[in-house]
Structure formats: C-alpha cells, structure tokens
C-alpha cells in the first residue's frame, strides 16, 4: 500500500469535521513518521479547511514532523561506550545494507537511519534501537539477518 492509500485510510477513520484535524495529523504522523505536503493537502480537502490552517497546526506541534522519515527508524548509539565497542562498524554496515548515509531515508520510505548519543544502555554496548526495541551487543554481521527478519520497528 502506498503513502496516498495509507493516508486515505487514516482520513476515513475520522469524521469529516475540522475538530478532528489534530487527531488526523497525529495518526498520519504515526503511520508515516512525518507529514508530507500531499498529506496536508489531503487532510485540508477531507475536512474542508484551508491548507494554511493545516500547515499552521503542523508547524505548531513539535511531535508533527515535516521532515521526511522512514516508517521505521534505526538509531545507532555513538556514545562513548558504544563507540569504543565498535558502533561505527555497525553504522557503516547499516549504511551499506540500506544504501543510505546516516540521516537518510531509503528510497522506498521504509527506513531512516540516525545516530544518537548515549541511550542509557551502555552495559549492552554497542547498542542499536528501533521503536521500543533495544538491540544490544550489536555486530556488523547481525545487520543483514535483522533486516531480513524485519526485526526493526
Ligand atoms: S554509550 Fe551507547 S548506550 Fe551508553
């Protein structure tokens, strides 16, 4: 299912009432991890409100992102403990397998790859997180298998 279809599905879960604008935008954010221009236009049209009103809401709420992100976000910890235990090699393997650099989004919109500082799990270093999941003692050799299993959230 493409982005437009997923957005249409989100829209139709809500009544065509401008009071649901924020709820719709939060649902789109959850589904797509960002709010595209197309999504804003679709929400405006569905609710019969101006695009500028939708844009104003998106820019006001920090949880709503206009920056394109993948539906799954993989974060590689680059804090001191993780760095010392080889997180750079894990990051490079993820970049290679996903075909993107840190900060990028895969062509299909599935993954965003980011680096973060200490996530508070230094005993498990090097650490990669995705959604609520923490992958400890990561090694470059585990990357392909985790991607193939769809282990990232
Ligand atoms: S440095 Fe990576 S979890 Fe602390």
Written description of the protein model:
This protein folds into 2 domains: 3-60, Arc Repressor Mutant, subunit A, CATH 1.10.10; 72-149, Glutaredoxin. The chain is 45% helix and 12% strand. It is built from 7 helices and 4 strands, in the order ααααβααβββα. Strand 3 (128-130) and strand 4 form a beta hairpin. The two termini are 18 Å apart. The model has no long low-confidence stretch (mean pLDDT 95). The chain binds FE2/S2 (inorganic) cluster. FE2/S2 (inorganic) cluster (FES) binds at residues 77, 79-82, 118-122, 125, 127.
What would the principal axes of the Cα set say about the shape?
elongated
CATH fold node name of the largest domain: Glutaredoxin
CATH secondary-structure class of the largest domain: Alpha Beta
With strands numbered from the N-terminus, the spatial order across the biggest sheet is: 2-1-3-4
Mean pLDDT: 95
Could you list the spans in which at least 5 consecutive residues all have pLDDT below 50?
A: none
Bound molecules: FE2/S2 (inorganic) cluster
According to DSSP, the number of beta strands is 4
Q: Please give the share of residues in helix.
A: 40-55%
Largest sheet: 4 strands, mixed
Q: How much beta, percentage-wise? A: 5-15%
Please give the radius of gyration in angstroms: 18 Å
CATH architecture label of the largest domain: 3-Layer(aba) Sandwich
**Structural class determined from secondary elements:** alpha+beta
Classified in CATH, the superfamily of the largest domain is: Glutaredoxin
Order of helices and strands: HHHHEHHEEEH
Domains, number: 2
From the N-terminal CA to the C-terminal CA, the straight-line distance is 18 Å
Number of H/I helices: 7
């Amino acid at each position: 299912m493409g982005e437009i279809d997923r957005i249409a599905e989100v829209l139709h879960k809500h009544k065509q009432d401008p009071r649901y604008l924020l709820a719709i935008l939060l649902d789109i954010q959850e589904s797509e991890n960002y709010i595209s221009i197309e999504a804003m236009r679709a929400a405006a049209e569905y609710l019969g409100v101006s695009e500028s009103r939708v844009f104003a809401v998106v820019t006001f709420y920090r949880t709503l992102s206009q920056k394109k992100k993948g539906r799954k976000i993989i974060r590689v910890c680059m804090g001191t403990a993780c760095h010392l235990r080889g997180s750079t090699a894990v990051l490079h393997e993820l970049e290679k397998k996903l075909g993107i650099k840190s900060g990028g989004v895969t062509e299909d919109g599935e993954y965003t790859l980011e680096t973060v500082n200490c996530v508070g799990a230094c005993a498990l270093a090097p650490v990669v997180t995705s959604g609520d999941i923490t992958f400890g003692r990561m090694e470059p050799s585990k990357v392909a298998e985790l991607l193939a299993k769809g282990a990232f959230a």
